[in-house]
Design goal:
The chain is mostly beta strands. It is built from 6 helices and 61 strands.
Length: 1006
Amino acid sequence: MSKNHSARLFLRPTALALALGLAAAGNVYAQSNASGVVFGRVSADQGTTVHLQNVDTGLSRDINVDAEGRYRASSLPVGRYNISVMRDGATVSTRENVSVQIGSGTDVSFVTDAASAANAATLEGIQVTGTALPTIDVSSVDSRTVLTAEQLQKLPIARDVTSAALLAPGAVGGDSRYGNVASFGGASAAENQYYVNGYAVTNALTGLGLISLPYDAIDQQQIFTGGYGAEYGRSTGGVVNMITKRGGNTWKAGGQVIYTPEALRDDPRNIYLTNGQLYQDRTKNKSWSTEYSAYISGPLVKDKLFLYATGDFIRTEGFTRGSTAAATDTNYTTKTNRYLAKIDWNISDNHLLELTGFSDKTTEQNDIYAYSYATGNRGAYRGSLYNKNYGTAGATPGGDVYIGKYTGYLTDDLTVNALYGHSSTKHQQTVNSVGGECPLITGSFNENGRTIFPPNCYLQGQLLAPGAEDKTHGWRLDVEYRVGDHDLRAGLDNQTLESFSGNSYEGPDSGRANGGAYYWTYGNAPASGTINGYPDVLFPAGTTRYVQRVYYYAASNVKTVQEAQFIEDHWQVNDRWLAYIGLRNEQFKNVNGAGDVYVKQRHQLAPRLGLTWDVFGDSSLKVYGNAGRYHLAIPSNVAIRAASGSYFLRQFGTFDSIDPVTGMPVGFVPNGREYASNGHDGTNPDPRTIAAKGMDAYYQDEYILGFDKQLGSDWVVGAKATLRKLKSSIDDFCDSRPFENWGARNGVDMSNATISGCYLFNPGKSNTFQVDMDGNGNFRDVTLTKGDFTNNGIGFPDLKRKYYALNLYAEKQFDEKWYAKFDYVFSRSYGNSEGMLKSDIGQRDPSVTQDWDAPEIMVGSNGPLPNDRTHQFKAYGFYQMTPEWLLSANMVVASGRPVNCIGLAPGDPIQYGASYFYCDGKLSPRGSRGRLPWTQQLNVGAEWRPAFADHKLGFNVDVFNVFSQQRETSVIEVGENAAGVPVATYKRANSYTQPRYFRFSVRYDL
């Protein structure tokens, strides 16, 4: 056999796989969050130096082979590499176009028969090309999904980060009231972290969503669903890590036009109340959109300086008809402009500098008209609403981001990475009503057998505070050093988040010092004429309806400082066993609107342990396990209400009639005094009275055990079991009785003590608070036990959020013909707390939900949690039928979300109205009202790249939700009003799966 012939033609695949697989022994190393690693073995008769060269940029490195035949190249920019083994300056063997993926180790070895097995084909002197390398990464102990730019372009998914992340096993869409967000591993949607080129771009205020980037700028998107190393923190859900494309030595350019027509959208389902009454006509709620994108990349200086630049320009126009509770017609126009530019400077082969800047800006103009459901006619123009960088629940914050990164290969064994980033986001929300100042109107009442929704002229209701802005800045420094069988890595990771934010309500000025408006909520009065918890409210006999006047205002500057240090060791114990040992130390500091530190958490230690076993020594079967602890900081938004002065005041009353335009009550007569909900009476709290002293951070423990098995040369199958336990949560309680119980137990007079309305604490544990005992600033420590939180035999339960899952998967590697991946996940997410959010009612206050406000509200709270989907099956892939035709598909089948009935507990013991796991006066435990239906969605796509255009011109059509199945994905779970009367809105759909639509595109790449 000629030594110069290709191994692909003459070597038996089994022998080649064996020879390459043996190289995994002793060559496993750490990877950073923005680069990859190549490692392997070289037999003594092959060579002493390994030469790596980036195919696109020319970046090259020469790595010496150690005495045991091992080599390693760390912190490599992702991309394609040619890797050669050298002897005396001459190339002996080469692997071409080796793909280096983000955060992954790629085994590229050169081992001959003498160094491997007696029955392996001899590789000595053979020029090896192609990428026939082991597909199982025996260097990793985590659980990840990596999507390449090629896959993102070919698969029929929406062009956004969340849609791509939802391809990962165990990922589910969050509640629609939180926008386009995802939940990973049973955690709430506010517990994820998002990175671009190593810098965190997660929503600075609430943790919901991210600052996005042009979709085509993504080179690789990595989704961690568990087991990630000590370099990552501040997440108890998932980590989504994106690396952008970069320029190379060849100038490239291209662009595309994407069109989603309104005419080919199916009609959305109408929404009805449980009594059959139409709630919302959605048949015309459709839109069309056009997206233009373009890119250019190439060398500014060959082999040295490179540019990549791209932009997305998206325009969407549509129509929305509101519900009978807010009957309006709205024509809207949304414009999203995203830009990215990246400069890569190979100062030398040992020193690299990257500069990235990108922008994400969205504006929305809404023109709003009145609409009459009675006549079916559009009414007069009511005004306009303008939003900038303020989508649903703030989950699409937008902004400008700048990132600089340095990589230094100081020696073969010593690598340094340094990064600095900054972001700035300005939000705006304004209304211009032709009807003047119109208040928010909510609620309904029954009259003559019909549900009456009062009229209104408000345009938005709750408004963002003027001048809202988020800013972040942060830096990290990582040092990696290889010594013997250990690959050591240590680093610092700091980020500061600053925001000015808050809310008030639309309407006439209330006349209060801080401004803002009242809003009004209607309901049916109970036959007794009394409202539990409001002793001075007594409605006159025969009163059948009431109205509440509510004043709410909260806005302030807040800040969160997050610091961390980590160290980790990838230890190659022997030829087949790798141990991972890591430790992360987190520090969190939260600052309120007055500039005072109200929570300071230090020494939050997070150990991470992992083990992989290369069973046969040939990378064909990997068994792995890991255990770790993961912390999360209190989000900045907590300080706006819980740690800064805010108002939330309620007052009941009767009325004579309702204004036919504004919906305001005419002849409002207050009945009883004004009550401050949770103590929000505008007082700026003393920082010592905001949170428990020495409070533990929010953290979760996780355990994973799994295996990966290669079948043949193309297939990998595997299974993974995951267990997650939330060990410590942070929320607020708003109950003075525990302090009274403590005083009685200790013989201390608490009658003159100043008790705050709400305190942040660790639910289900003993907590120590600082209490002003006489109102004169004389504080003492008060330690409340679980017994102190108990009244009338009702106490707080132990915190519980558990998630367990079994993931079975099979993946077919792309063989120039087809690629496919299949995932099935059986999982359960259950307990008494979702975590940072409360999707049961769509509450948007991470870490200050109404859960844990008092023990009574937690009665019946244990059960399947909102992000529980017992069964999930996902399949996606593509088929290159001919060089001209590509077919693709993406299918998701999942069981439905659990359903609750939330209502009024007997006696309304904490005066929270319809907020308990009670309905009809009986306990209604979490999840006891069944489940929403299964959802099945199939997306398909086709691409034609004609030969006459040298396959550079592409025509695409994608069909989403082919069978147009529209199933409920969330419903109203409040079954009663504040008086305990059943409401017709119970189980009304909040959201359905999106109906069928088509997307067309034309793309040309020069």
